[in-house]
Structures are given as structure tokens and as C-alpha cells.
Design brief:
alpha/beta, Rossmann fold, three-stranded mixed β-sheet, binds nicotinamide-adenine-dinucleotide, 3-hydroxyisobutyrate dehydrogenase activity, NAD binding, 6PGDH_NADP-bd
Amino acid sequence: IPLSVGFVGLGAMGRPMVANLARKLPAGSRIYVHDVVPTVVEELCTEFAGIVDKSDSAMNVAQLSEIVITMLPEGSHVKLVHLDPESGIIAAKFADDKVIIDCSTIDTTTSLSVKAALTAASPLLSFYDAPVSGGVLGAINATMAFFLGCSHNDPNLHRLTAFLSLMGGKVIPCGGPSLGLAAKLSNNYLSGIITVACAEAMDMGMRAGINARTLASVFAAGTAQNTICDVFNPVPGVCPKAPSSNGYKNGFRVQLMRKDIGLAVDMARTVGAKNVLGISGLGVYAAASEASDCQDLDSRVVYRYLGGRED
Ligand code: NAD
């Protein structure tokens, strides 16, 4: 059955997600898109003429669509796009059930407050948080994972899983509202802190005289084995396809990792969890985000920031 889908936020992640939907949705489906940057909207409408149409506000996107996705930078953008009384999703008038999915990585409190405001304004609406993991490549190849903020017996789960699978490889229901975000922030906290530990351990062993590749193979065979060391090793030359071996380009930007670790540290405070490593890790990512030789590069550039050698 053809679907009408809305999409707001056509950046590094949103744009390839729309492209996958345009290729995979049943014939006759429409995708209504909106972004504050007009060029990206025009480009998508030209590339997928007859499937993708532009809308001049999030309200109009929601008005026209059965399912709406938002993929925005931060909580402030999510609040604006969802709750602006003039042009936000909340201003749309619905006659039928509607599903709104926010895929942005934001704090759980904002997500819960957006859900509460939207469902209070329109009882026919269901709102879910569904942040993603897998980066821009995962968005392009539709291999990323969705961490879905819903219970295992949610009546929409089957439909949501089928729909999100058009853009990703895995959909994991995390138990209830905002828990997709709690899962995502916990995941990025862990991978961000492992990266700093890996950078320090690699640098230490190399300074003691061990070759970088030998050291990585020791970690792979020992109890330190982990994906960052094996696949995204921060030391240039260890993993030829990793961003570190390609000038730290085309990866997960260090500023995004700073944002996510900051959100995770806030969440830890809110729920009363200890995060000794998070506080120092956040300091490393914050400083690297501002260093001219690290800014805008892949987050594994913290190896460079920490003084690791790159020859
Ligand atoms: P981006 O900055 O490339 O794209 C965001 C888009 O939202 C931009 O096109 C911007 O113009 C648009 N936008 C901002 N305010 C708007 C508004 N009021 N109305 C309409 N459009 C608006 O960001 P991204 O890299 O696509 O990331 C989006 C989210 O996904 C972030 O929360 C990020 O943390 C998360 N994420 C990113 C990656 C990654 O590798 N880039 C990976 C996983 C998760």
C-alpha cells in the first residue's frame, strides 16, 4: 500500500535516509520534505521527481503525511520543529492516526516533553524517539541501527519495524518512551570513552617501542579486544579503511561526540549514575572540538589531540 511520509531535517543523515525511502517505498508513495536550507530540498526533489515533494513548513509536512520523521541537530531544533505554534508539527490538524518519529540524538527530558505536548494537542498522534547508530555510511547503505523508544508490546511496533528497516539494518525496541535515547547516549558514552582509552593505550605501548599494528593485534587477541581498536583504530595506518588512516575525514565529527558525551554526562546526573570517566572524557572531546587541527574531523582525532604520533 502506498504511504505518505514526511521528513524534516535533510542534513548528513536525513538526506541519505530520504534517498533510501524514495528507492524502497511501495510505488505511488510520496515523501514530503522540509529543511531550512532550500538547496538540499531542491536537489532531492529533482533527483526523485514524482516521489519527493517540498513543503514549506513542518506543519505542512505533518498535515500531508501518515508517518513523519525528524532528523535534527539538537533539542532546541527538535522543540522548534515540533512545537512552534505557527509552523510546527503541533499546528497541523489531523483527522486520522499519525506516527511521528524523532531520530535526532537529544536529551531524554526534551524528547518526553515534546511527546507530552504533541499527544496532549492531538490524541490521534503517536510519538517515538528512534535515534540511530552507524554514521553517514550506515545511513547511505541503510545498515544503521535504530534504538526505538517503545515497549515490546506496543501496537505500532510491527509497523514501525517494517518502516524503519527501509533505512536501517536493525530496529531494537528499548522498552518505552525516551529509552531509545537513553540507549543511544549510553552506547556513545561507552564508544567515546573506549576511544580515549584506546588512544592512550596505543600511544603508551608505541612510546615503549611496540609497533602500532603489533600492539593492535595484541589487543585483538587479549582481554582489551573491542571494535574501536579493531575497526576504527585512532592511530593512522593501523586500519587502512578507518577515518584515522584517511586524514580523519568522513567519520563521526568530534563535535558530535562532544555533544553526545555531554548529553550522557547530564543523563548520568539526572538518573544518579556515577561517571568518573565521562567527566574527563568530556574534557578531552570539548578541547579537541575547539583545536584547529582537530575540529570537524572524525572523533578518533582525539589521538592527535592527546599528542599521539602520526608518522
Ligand atoms: P546535520 O547538521 O548535517 O543536519 C541537520 C539538518 O537539519 C540540516 O540540514 C539543517 O538545515 C536542518 N535543520 C535545522 N533546523 C531546522 C529547522 N528548524 N527546520 C528544518 N530543518 C532544520 O546533522 P546530521 O549529521 O544529519 O545529524 C542529525 C542528528 O543525527 C543529530 O542529532 C546527530 O547527533 C545524529 N547522528 C548523526 C550521525 C552522523 O554521523 N552525522 C550519526 C548518528 C546520529
